Amino acid sequence: MDYFRKVLGAPQDVQTNSGADTVERLCERVSSSTLLDDRRDAVRALKALSKKFRLEVGTQAMDILLNVLEHDRTDAEIIGYALDTFYHIMSNEPTDEDDVSNVYGHDLGGQFTEIFIKHAENVSLLLSFLEEYDFHVRWPTVKLLTVLLTNRQKELQEIILVVPMGVSRLMDLLSDSREIIRNDALLLLNQLTKGHANIQKIVAFENAFERIIDIIRDEGATDGGIVVEDCLLLLQNLLRNNASNQNFFKEGSYIQKLKPFFQIHDEPHSKQIGWSAQKVTNMHLLLQLVRTLVSPNNPQNQTVACQKVMNQCGLLQDLCSILMASGVPADVLTETINTVSEVIRGSQMNQEYFASVLAPSTPPRPAIVVLLMSMVNEKQPFVLRCAVLYCFQSFLYKNEVGQSQIIQTLLPTAADANSITAGQLLCGGLFSADPLSNWFASVALLHAIVENPTQKEQLLRVQLATSLGSPPVSLLQQCCNMLSQGGKLQTRIGLLMILCGWLSDCPIAVSHFLNNTANVPYLISQVSSSEGDEHEAIVQGLCAFLLGICMLYNDDTSEAFSKTALKQIMQNRIGLESFTDKLSQVAQNESYTRAAKKPHLYHKHPSEIVFDYEFTRLFKSLENEVLKAVSGSGSNINGRKSGPSTEQQYKNLLKEQEDQVLLLRQRIEELQSHAISADKSIVELQRQVQQLKDQNALLKAQKGSLSPASSISSDEVDSLKREVESLRLQLHNSHIFSNTVSDENKENDPDGASVLNVTIARLQSELAHKDEEVLSLRSELDRVNEVLKQKTSEQTAASSSVSNAEVELKLQQTEEKLKLITDERNHLQERLTKSNEENLKLANTIRKLEDEKVDAVNEKENLKEEMDTLKKEQDDLLVLLADQDVKIDKYKTKLKELGQEVEDDDDDDDELGEDNEEDLDAD
Amino acid sequence: MSYAYLFKYIIIGDTGVGKSCLLLQFTDKRFQPVHDLTIGVEFGARMITIDGKQIKLQIWDTAGQESFRSITRSYYRGAAGALLVYDITRRDTFNHLTTWLEDARQHSNSNMVIMLIGNKSDLEARREVKKEEGEAFAREHGLIFMETSAKTAANVEEAFINTAKEIYQKIQDGVFDINNEANGIKIGPQHSPASQSLNVGGSGGNQGGNCC
């Protein structure tokens, strides 16, 4: 470490020298020290220097450090330092000391990597370190392998492939519980699988799909961070151009597992905040993953199978709802449209579903119409418009029903003044002032009739009202008029493409086209013109192609421009050479080859738009036939003159002519057989046409019968929606209600206690009240007793003088009073028993609430005791009263015995009573 | 497509013995007389039924060529079953079986079920390896044996299904650890022990107390 400190303090140039010296000395220490501690310190010091002195450490320490890796593997610490050192010298990543490392040139790391992997055992050694669980070993190993793969991918892939279980060990890293290792393993696997189908397959075999999808889900799907991005990149690496893995992905039901990731939660707050950049990236990659599975460049059966699964598991539906959702960023929307395009392309079931998707507008419009509105809208982003066209094309690809539906919207019979139709939008685009809209609309229209002769004929019926007063003009003628008026390049190319597509394989359209005598001269003038740049050459070439098509599919109905007439004109006005030259320029154009590559419109700038993929296919298939039609059988022209002849000459001529006759006869026979077969095929074709027409009629009828049904169902849907809304409201209310209820429940217990307290208090007061009553009762009794005593004494005193009747009356009065008192007492008793019962009830409640219980019970018992004593007292009183009764009876009998009349005056009675009492006392 | 179990197979054996044709016959029920040389490995899948249970077979068809040996070795570890194929019209492919078997035993898990297949049984006239020899080899090394023809489809179904039956039996016997996916066996999504909703046994009787 001393050396190291010296180095840090030294000035720049000295530093380099002494740095090299230090590295040398450290290397010596590592190789010569017998003590592990010393070696470990030296390797640690080397690690510290390895960023700054990559060249020195790399050149001098490589072998020594490899030695350490081999022999000191029991010590995790030293291995970790050695691996970090390797990582530093291999890594070309710019460091803090960038200026220093740049001195050694750009690919120093690559060169060291080459040296390192020259011995494949070194890589196996690294892979064997992955068995080590220690973080200080495993993590630097992962990082080192990643940087090695980054520097020398191909070589390292081959080495790892050969190491037994090499790939499997790297795959096991995904299960590491330490996130940092798992995440770095994702980066490592990304490097490992890039462009190597065999490694991709092994990785897939090791359950990569399942594990990666689990990680994506655990990390929060598209809401997750950069780890999700890495996972999606890895998935794409494993699937792109790898049919076997794609098949495995589909068979393993992993498409179904992707589905939940596409559910966008339409939260109001997310609309305001918008999507994070990471979410946009994740969604983009997720969509690209889907496209990888259904790419038109995949084997067809593969794509078809995946498309089917995507419809069945509802993935297509989810994609369509993203399409119609609000708040989705434009680039995600564009990619979603591209994805939907490829999911429906050529799959009848998916196309049908797509046609049924309605946009949530008022009134609801088909998604196709809404998309087309964006396509012909100049203000929409260019890439989005391209995506819409791609989607439209994919919808119509191999979809005769869809084609006829689109064309129907152009025909006068189906015209509905109120709603916007696809046909109206296409016409609007075709004749708009925006050249790009012209191009998009014409290509869209081309796809509506491509390989579909019926629709080509139907399209001829389309008439346009140009301006008030002037007669309607056919769509075909309007296209020609626009073409002849010149205009921007894209407008003209678009129009030429639709015309070529329209006229090919459709003699009726050709004759319509030729009926306007201005058309052919325009084309001739274009083709024969020699001026112009590369772009004009394209227009000229396309005009030549159109002219050729007019010849190829000419049924000779137009006299002025019959097949032969046209040929004559072309040969005279343009010349065969020039014609061929112009025609061949089309396919030679760079944009032609670009467009022919794949159906997807992957243009970045509007100026790149020239050709359409489907048109390039048409051109390829017809180019040679056009050339043949123009040049072939041109030998009809007989330019020979008959001069002075000899017999030989005549003989020769005769022989020649005989040969010719023979040839011609053969030719005639050939042609006759041709004609017969052609007749047959015509009959068959006619039958087919009839069938198609029937089918068409049937479909129309079906469509007619369907449309009211659909309106009904939309009504139904509306009412259902309303119902759902009301239900939701109810739910909301009940939610609020349940909330308040639960609040109440929460407070219930304390309330109960307080209620109990109150009742107890009330009871106590009641008891107190009763006590008082009892007291007053007692005092009254006392008073009564006194009165009685008085009476008895009076009676005894006036036993002789006072009349019995009076006594009797008084007694009666007292009896009544007593009765009243007893009643009152009984009443009180009743109340007391009632309160007892109440107390019992409360005791039950109290038992449930254990906190309050003890106090309450105690109090209650106290109260009970008190009440018992009161009862006893009352009982005593009762006894007393009974005694009194008995006494009164006695007095009565005594009075009777005394012979006094009971009906006497009160006063007498009193006196008597007093007397009696006195007597009693005397007894 | 739900399934009770998922088994991973590999098909191994010398080049040109008909491994890819066996797979094609099994998955697509067709025979392709001229088949491209397999590069690395190719994947195929099919659903079968054993004991009334849906079983998904995921099959990796490997390249027989020596140069791909290092690649194909990576597939042994994660496979539950292997079809070891030789060509009854080519003695050398039979002679190489020992090497194949060693390779397989070395890199696979010990429970892997190996089915020995003598393919091209339709070419009886050109037979070089007797059926008895195949049977003897299988007996000696504890393999199941069958002669098949990818061309006529004879025994092709049986070969794949019998292998699955053997694996299924091993699962029933508890030999395989079905929770370890590295064994090439996976339990279907609906068969994994899902948490069943428990019925709470009535809330305590809160009646009574109002008797007066």
UniProtKB/TrEMBL annotation, chain A:
Residues 349-630 form the Vesicle tethering protein Uso1/P115-like head domain. Keywords: Coiled coil, Cytoplasm, Golgi apparatus, Membrane, Repeat. The keyword Protein transport does not apply. It holds the Pfam family Uso1_p115_head. One of its GO terms (biological process) is vesicle fusion with Golgi apparatus. One of its GO terms (cellular component) is Golgi stack. Residues 900-923 have a biased composition (Acidic residues). It is a peripheral membrane protein. It comes from the Eukaryota. Residues 894-923 are annotated as: Disordered. SUPFAM superfamilies: ARM repeat. It is found in: Cytoplasm; Endomembrane system; Golgi apparatus. Residues 794-919 form the Uso1/p115-like vesicle tethering protein C-terminal domain. Gene3D superfamilies: Leucine-rich Repeat Variant (1.25.10.10). InterPro entries: ARM-like, ARM-type_fold, P115_Arm_rpt, Uso1_p115_C, Vesicle_P115, Vesicle_Uso1_P115_head. Residues 647-702 form a coiled coil. This is General vesicular transport factor p115-like isoform X1. It comes from Biomphalaria pfeifferi.
